[in-house]
Write a structure and sequence with these properties.
This protein is of the alpha+beta class and 138 residues long. It is 22% helix and 33% strand. It is built from three helices and six strands. It has a three-stranded antiparallel β-sheet with strand order 2-1-3, with helices on one face. A three-stranded antiparallel β-sheet has the order 4-6-5, with helices on both faces.
Length: 138
């Protein structure tokens, strides 16, 4: 799956602010793009930082600010699976990517869009059901 298809699969909110965080070892910076209008710019920006740590969330925001109060409703639950055994996950993710050698990210796309508070509860329940999963990201 190419990066564009991946993003279009896991970002399930129709529009909003997309955050791309990056670091070359000197601290983290957040760059903001409006989804989906700036998809090409997102791809170019991320590609140009192949020598940096680059992180994103599949959740969009109503403002260019990565605080929970600005998170928009979504259909995606994401989890940093860390050292989890991906063969024994309680639910098979819609998309599973290897983010670094032997470390994975899981994305579960659910049927209906839910507000961020409900999504947080679902995410917490899922991550705590997965042994060796990062429990801080929900």
């Amino acid at each position: 799956m190419d990066v564009q298809t991946f993003l279009q699969t896991v970002i399930t909110t129709p529009s909003g602010w997309f955050c791309l965080a990056h670091s070359n070892g000197g601290g983290w910076r957040e760059e903001w793009f409006f989804w989906p209008e700036q998809l090409e710019e997102i791809l170019a920006f991320a590609s140009a930082r192949s020598n940096e740590n680059v992180f994103f969330t599949s959740h969009l925001f109503s403002q260019a600010c990565s605080q929970k109060k600005y998170a928009l409703p979504s259909r995606t639950i994401q989890a940093d699976l860390d050292n989890a055994d991906i063969l024994t996950l309680p639910l098979v993710p819609t998309v599973l990517i290897e983010s670094s050698p032997d470390r994975y990210q899981g994305y579960w796309v659910i049927q209906e869009e839910v507000d961020i508070d409900v999504l947080e509860v679902l995410s917490r329940k899922l991550t705590y059901a997965i042994a060796k999963c990062d429990h801080s990201g929900w």
